[in-house]
Structure formats: C-alpha cells, structure tokens
From TrEMBL:
<dbReference type="Pfam" id="PF00005">
    <property type="entry name" value="ABC_tran"/>
</dbReference>
<keyword id="KW-0547">Nucleotide-binding</keyword>
<dbReference type="GO" id="GO:0016887">
    <property type="term" value="F:ATP hydrolysis activity"/>
</dbReference>
<protein>
    <submittedName>
        <fullName>Amino acid/amide ABC transporter ATP-binding protein 1 (HAAT family)</fullName>
    </submittedName>
</protein>
<keyword id="KW-0067">ATP-binding</keyword>
<dbReference type="InterPro" id="IPR017871">
    <property type="entry name" value="ABC_transporter-like_CS"/>
</dbReference>
<dbReference type="InterPro" id="IPR003593">
    <property type="entry name" value="AAA+_ATPase"/>
</dbReference>
<dbReference type="InterPro" id="IPR051120">
    <property type="entry name" value="ABC_AA/LPS_Transport"/>
</dbReference>
<dbReference type="InterPro" id="IPR003439">
    <property type="entry name" value="ABC_transporter-like_ATP-bd"/>
</dbReference>
<feature type="domain" description="ABC transporter">
    <location>
        <begin position="4"/>
        <end position="252"/>
    </location>
</feature>
<dbReference type="Pfam" id="PF12399">
    <property type="entry name" value="BCA_ABC_TP_C"/>
</dbReference>
<dbReference type="InterPro" id="IPR027417">
    <property type="entry name" value="P-loop_NTPase"/>
</dbReference>
<dbReference type="GO" id="GO:0005524">
    <property type="term" value="F:ATP binding"/>
</dbReference>
<dbReference type="GO" id="GO:0005886">
    <property type="term" value="C:plasma membrane"/>
</dbReference>
<dbReference type="InterPro" id="IPR032823">
    <property type="entry name" value="BCA_ABC_TP_C"/>
</dbReference>
<keyword id="KW-0813">Transport</keyword>
C-alpha cells in the first residue's frame, strides 16, 4: 500500500486552479522527486498534503487512512512533516536550542512536572540534548552548535531544518527546495544526509527541487507537474525524454528543437 496516495486533488484560489486534479502515489521507503516549471502547483500540493491549506476537493490517504485536511499537528503525530524555513523568532536561539525545542510533550515545559518531578525533567532534557548532539554530528553542523540560527549560512539553515525533522519520529518528510541558494559542497552534504536518513532510518522523502543534478542523484521516482496536474512519473531520464514534460518546460517551439538535438525525432 502506498505511503501517500493523492486522489484527484484540487486547490483553487478564487477562479485559479493551482492544483487541478492531481493524482499520485508515494511509495514507502522512496525518495520521490517533485519537479515542474514555476507555478506548476508543487508547493500548493505540499501545503495541502501537510494540512497547511485545506483542499477544494479530493483526497489524501496515508497508508490507506484518510488524512485529508488534518491539522499539521495531527499529521506531525502520525509522522508526516513538512519542513519550513527556521522562523524569525527562532533566529536568536542557537542551533542546538532550535533542535532541542522540537520534541513535543517535553515534561520540562510543564510547570507541574518541573516542580514535582525534577529528576524526570532533567533526565528528559539530558536525553534530548544527547539526541540534538547526535543529529548535529550526523549533519556535520556540530561545529556551529552554539551559533545563533539567524547568523548561519543559507545551506546550514537547510541542514538545521532537516535536523529538526530528525528530532521527531518522522516517517515521511516533505522538503521544499532544499537546494535553493545553497553552495555545491553543502548541497552534497544535504544529499548525503537525505540518502542516509532514507537508508539507515527508513525515512520516506518527497523533495521539490529545481536543481536536476540533485534530483538525479537522490530521487527515484521523479514526478513532473505542470498547470496543477501530474504530467509524468518515472526515472529522471525517462522524465527528461517525455515530450509533454519538455513542452511544459520549454513551450512547443523549443520542444521540437530539443527533441531533434537529442535524436528523439
Ligand atoms: N495563496 C495564493 N493565492 C493565490 N494564488 C496562489 C496562492 N498560492 C499560490 N498561488 C498560485 O498558484 C500557482 C502555483 O503556485 P505554487 O507555488 O504551488 O507553484 P510551484 O510549482 O511551487 O512554483 P515554484 O517552482 O515557482 O515554487 C502560482 O501561479 C501561484 O501564483
């Protein structure tokens, strides 16, 4: 059974159909790439799946269970996460603190526990700190543990976003443009981290990215969207050779030129 099944999903903004009848499946254990030209509806699709936006119509199933329109918190407890940029209010906290505040239900947050079960609170904080250290080591950001999140580079922020998902019991993680504005070296670190999380810890990923080298390196399968619909699914090579995909990216005139150059016609 598919980890995620999206069935005939629509999201309209007024009369504009940002997602226009998208149907797709994400297999458990896969790193699925989601590509498509600007405005294809990829981020909107993510937001609907992750409960950030209500759908106009259609269904989202997680391992067969209808999760359509559930609040992000409810999805979080089911292990479905969508990463977001580190919010402004967390910029003055250190990288370690940003990681340590993620796990839900910390008893330290609860005044009752802090007064009456101080040992339990200390033990839990110790456990969370140890996990944060492990995560930073895994992502090779342990050297910036005590830096303020607002002062680290764009690529390091992306690693921190990924790190925040590792503080939870995530099963499936939706990553939106992890590579945007990130230098090549850090992009490789991010790719390695995603591959290892997938192989060693069984995370399923869905990744939106415009960098095709990055997609080609880590994603199989790749799904291409355009104008709110799914155009094609396959390996990146299959997708690149798909006429509808080329047309969506380039328009009809350029499509014929590219197909000719690549020897498809
Ligand atoms: N809140 C909104 N209100 C109105 N239109 C919106 C809203 N959010 C997105 N759109 C429109 O929906 C379309 C799809 O946007 P979306 O961001 O989902 O595309 P995308 O495939 O992620 O594009 P990109 O690759 O450029 O990020 C765009 O034309 C966008 O302007």
């Amino acid at each position: 059974m598919a980890m995620i099944r999206v069935e005939n999903l629509h999201k309209h903004f007024g009369g504009f159909h940002a997602v226009d009848g998208a149907t797709l499946e994400v297999e458990k254990g896969s790193i699925t790439g989601l590509i498509g030209p600007n405005g294809a509806g990829k981020t909107t699709l993510f937001n609907v799946i992750a409960g950030v936006l209500p759908p106009t119509s259609g269904q989202v199933l997680m391992e067969g269970e209808d999760i359509t329109g559930l609040h992000p918190h409810a999805l979080f407890s089911k292990g479905l996460l969508r990463t977001f940029q580190v919010a402004h209010e967390f910029h003055t906290m250190t990288v370690r603190e940003n990681l340590m505040m993620v796990p839900p239900g910390q008893s330290g947050e609860d005044l009752w526990s802090a007064w009456f079960h101080p040992t339990r609170v200390r033990e839990e904080e110790h456990r969370i700190r140890a996990r944060a250290n492990e995560v930073m080591e895994f992502l090779t950001i342990d050297h910036i543990a005590d830096e303020k999140a607002g002062q680290i580079s764009g690529g390091q922020k992306k690693l921190l976003e990924l790190g925040r998902t590792m503080m939870t019991d995530a099963k499936i993680v939706f990553l939106d443009e992890v590579g945007a504005g990130v230098n090549r070296t850090l992009l490789n670190t991010i790719a390695d981290a995603i591959l290892r999380l997938n192989k060693e810890q069984g995370y399923t990923f869905v990744v939106i990215e415009h960098d095709m080298d990055f997609i080609g390196r880590i994603c199989d399968p790749v799904i291409c969207m355009a104008e709110g619909k799914v155009l094609a699914q396959g390996t990146l090579d299959e997708i690149k050779a798909n006429e509808q995909v080329i047309e969506a990216y380039l328009g009809t005139g350029l499509k014929n030129k590219v197909l000719k150059e690549e020897g498809h016609v």
